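>> Question from a student workshop board

For tomorrow's exercise we were told to take the sequence and the ligand below, predict the bound structure, and bring the output to class. My setup keeps failing. Could a helper post the expected result so I can at least see what it should look like? The ligand is flavin-adenine dinucleotide.
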Amino acid sequence: MEYVVIGHGTAGQTASAVLKKVDPDSRVYVIEKGRYVSNHPCSLPMVLGGRLELKALEESALKGRVNLILGAKADYIDLERKVVRYEKDGSKDELPYDRLVLATGLKPTFPRVEGLDLEGVGTVWDIESVAKLLKILGNKVVVVGGSATGIEVASELSKTGREVVLIEALEQLMPGKLDLPISSLVARELTEMGVKVMLKTRLEGLEGEGGKLRRVKTNSGTIEADTAVIVTGAKPNSDLALKSGLKIGETGAVWVDDYMFTSDPNVLAAGDVAEVRDFVTGERVTTGLASTALVQGRIAAENAAGMRVKYRGALSPYIVPVGDYWFGGVGISASKADSLGIEYLSFRFAGSDLPKYMPGRDRSVIWLITDTEGRILGAQVFGRRDVRGRILFITAAIYAGFKVQDIRVMEFAYQPELCDVLDPVVVASEGMSRKYRLLL
Ligand SMILES: Cc1cc2nc3c(=O)[nH]c(=O)nc-3n(C[C@H](O)[C@H](O)[C@H](O)COP(=O)(O)OP(=O)(O)OC[C@H]3O[C@@H](n4cnc5c(N)ncnc54)[C@H](O)[C@@H]3O)c2cc1C
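>> Workshop helper replied:
Here is what the output should look like for this input. Compare the format with yours to find the bug.
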């Protein structure tokens, strides 16, 4: 078999490596428009905080046995002839395939305002954008967009001693993803670090002098700044799929079935460019996470090679650092349930992350969302210790269909330096079971 993978990001790297594993005699070609074998976008904010060199992210040695064509942009998939047309160094070429995996990711979007071309304006997207930002980074920074990336970038830049303002157009950080009990803690932590968080503040323009940024204009007033980092979102990079005649879903991403096949029987799609089903709601969604892209890339490759592995749907677990804390979530938020008209119960528990006698203990906050019978639909967690562990457990609990009544009597590993004997997830489940009389 001859496989072509388009895009060597998280989904494409996984797909190409898995193809070689499950079909070792095959030939696997990857067409990647970038110059790097890998560029690890999730670690870019740490570079801004000075905790990691940008060079550490520039991977250029290929580990697997795939044929990677770098600096090559796929510009058409001829579905009839089963060939991909691509352009490299100004010349055009073609590659035939038996099966193709499309993994072209997202592309960043920017607000339509004046001044985006001023010196001092940048974004955090890939190695090139961060290299540019590092050169222009001043001391008065406005981060535009209260997304996970915006929060992480604001936190990292603030740790370097810069004056940082984070502006978000809506009334809370990460609207739709986070609910107020957790987003308010994130905003408070940023504020305590010295970041000025301005909610309900929309970017209206960027003003400069002599080609350099001087002011950021918003509906809440003008902010003096020498740097603006615009992280206002991204959309599926599905132009190639559209142009080639593949079905585009309602989100603008490439429609795939539960086996990652697109509307063409020889083309699969995975990662941020694919529109999949949400595990909890069944809605058509895009995901925007490396961990999710990896699972989809694996399943797409296995099915391209003739296996029949079902994608169970996206739960999209995530975790983000903010100051000395972490927050994360999985499944749906209460605001998402509201917007979809789903009946739900919610519960907030705030407790200690270590036994009362332990020095250095801190708060641990759990926010649970269940259906009316107590089955978990989503959760958000804030704290200093083991936030990821709790998100991992709740992710598995949602997949397994656990109710809070089940979790309140489950056994969790305990050691006083790491946690309290009653894990906050257990205490939250117990509290929720009692509050809503879900016990029996
Ligand atoms: C700053 C930042 C921080 C992040 N932090 C996290 C995190 O902490 N945790 C997490 O889970 N996720 C995080 N993400 C998201 C995560 O990086 C993405 O969800 C993940 O990389 C998606 O993988 P993908 O393979 O679908 O797309 P990508 O990794 O974007 O790969 C797509 C690839 O396709 C190539 N390509 C596109 N079009 C063409 C074409 N026509 N021809 C050839 N090649 C093409 C691109 O050059 C790119 O290399 C972060 C993203 C950013 C930007």
